[in-house]
């Protein structure tokens, strides 16, 4: 059993007796590490159960059903399979959810699927399965419960039609708007995932959806839904023809809330795929810009300071030219792990492009941010890279900082921090520069 490295935020525990992946185990681990999680392999039920009991929240639990035995065709063997599966399920801690891997023949048995999904099943998949596909699917499951993630629904209407506590428990914020002609401005500023419009407001201002969707910054992943209280086929046709993505009929607040949460879950998964850097699992440029705008809005409402930093690996072109792009990717990955390990719960981190990273420290002054980033710099300079057998190299990065509310927009923060990064590069690299704006 391999020991999990503390470098990785997330972990997979895999119970298997015969390795089943199409590719080899070492390649599976390398692929997992690129997505910032490690895999521990278990071949004994007792050890697996004990590890599950002691594990933290950033862990997925995977069980290869061949730890039981291969199913046969006759009915007697099918009954024995169900008995052994029941025994397995009874031994698993019930406060966890599990991912089951099964053969194609096992997957054809509906009763087996039913027993799995009724017994703390997070997901199931068929094997053999390639390293790349398995790692991507596990990464998506980690993404569902990623810390700090929140979503928003903007409602244009007078009477709240949803269950607010249910939304809050699922980290979904409800933003209410009363004035139709201000809707496009609020959507632009807050970028909610769903815009819910009461039918009465639509009837009074039918151009609402067209105004929203013709904005060049409109997010195509955003859903615009009309809420009908007195549905008619003619009204539904008009709404869909005018650009609504969906029409929902109001019955009870908890029912509508459940419908919206189901849609939010799909939006979360879809946006996670397009907002994350595939090599590191961090936010990419698109993901950062959306989250940065959300953080700035929340900081402004709460009077909270932010520290915005940009870093760049020193002489990265030389690293690539000397030891190759594959080695350069390793340097980037290791840096992402060093940075992630020192983030606070509400901080943001992005691989902005190439060897450039951006982070936003929540409730943090400019000087505090500079100190945090400088500590990250110190940590990275101590990481040894083996460039060839017996020879190690150490690398560094430079950084620039800007502070909110001294710079009030995401663009202004980026430009200021980038200018400070340039100063750091000009004054010898391997340092962090920040400067208050001139008064």
From TrEMBL:
InterPro entries: Diguanylate_Cyclase, GGDEF_dom, Nucleotide_cyclase, Rev_trsase/Diguanyl_cyclase. It holds the Pfam family GGDEF. It catalyses: 2 GTP = 3',3'-c-di-GMP + 2 diphosphate. It comes from the Bacteria. GO terms for molecular function: diguanylate cyclase activity. Residues 304-437 form the GGDEF domain. Its EC number is 2.7.7.65. It is an enzyme of class 2 (transferase). This is diguanylate cyclase.
């Amino acid at each position: 059993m391999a020991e999990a490295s503390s470098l990785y935020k997330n972990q997979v525990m895999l119970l298997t007796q015969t390795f089943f992946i199409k590719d080899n185990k070492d390649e599976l681990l390398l692929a997992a590490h690129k997505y910032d999680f490690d895999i521990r392999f278990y071949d004994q039920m007792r050890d697996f159960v004990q590890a599950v009991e002691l594990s933290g929240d950033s862990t997925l639990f995977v069980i290869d059903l061949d730890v039981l035995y291969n199913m046969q065709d006759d009915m007697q063997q099918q009954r024995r399979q169900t008995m052994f599966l029941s025994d397995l399920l009874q031994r698993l801690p019930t406060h966890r959810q599990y991912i089951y891997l099964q053969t194609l023949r096992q997957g054809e048995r509906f009763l087996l699927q039913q027993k799995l999904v009724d017994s703390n099943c997070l997901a199931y998949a068929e094997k053999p399965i390639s390293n790349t596909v398995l790692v991507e699917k596990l990464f998506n499951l980690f993404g569902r419960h990623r810390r700090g993630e929140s979503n928003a629904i903007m409602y244009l209407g007078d009477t709240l039609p949803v269950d607010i506590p249910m939304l809050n428990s699922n980290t979904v914020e409800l933003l209410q708007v009363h004035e139709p002609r201000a809707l496009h401005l609020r959507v632009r500023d807050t970028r909610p995932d769903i815009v819910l419009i009461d039918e009465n407001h639509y009837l009074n201002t039918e151009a609402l959806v067209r105004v929203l969707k013709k904005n060049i910054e409109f997010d195509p992943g955003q859903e615009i839904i009309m809420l009908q209280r007195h549905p008619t086929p003619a009204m539904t046709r008009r709404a869909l023809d005018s650009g609504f993505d969906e029409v929902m009929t109001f019955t009870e607040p908890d029912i509508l809330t459940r419908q919206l949460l189901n849609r939010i879950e799909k939006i979360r998964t879809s946006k996670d795929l397009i907002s994350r850097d595939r090599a590191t699992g961090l936010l990419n440029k698109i993901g950062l810009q959306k989250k940065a705008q959300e953080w700035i809005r929340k900081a402004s409402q709460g009077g909270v300071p932010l520290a915005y930093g940009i870093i760049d690996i020193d002489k990265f072109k030389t690293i690539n030219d000397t030891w190759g792009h594959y080695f350069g990717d390793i340097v980037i990955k290791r840096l992402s792990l060093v940075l992630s390990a020192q983030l606070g719960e509400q901080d943001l981190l992005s691989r902005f492009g190439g060897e450039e990273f951006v982070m936003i420290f929540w409730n943090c002054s400019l000087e505090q941010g500079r100190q945090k980033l400088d500590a990250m710099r110190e940590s990275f300079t101590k990481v040894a890279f083996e460039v060839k057998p017996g020879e190690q190299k150490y690398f560094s990065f430079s950084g620039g900082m800007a502070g909110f509310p001294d710079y009030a927009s995401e663009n202004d923060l980026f430009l200021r921090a980038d200018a400070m990064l340039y100063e750091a590069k000009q004054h010898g690299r391997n340092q962090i520069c920040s400067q208050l704006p001139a008064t």
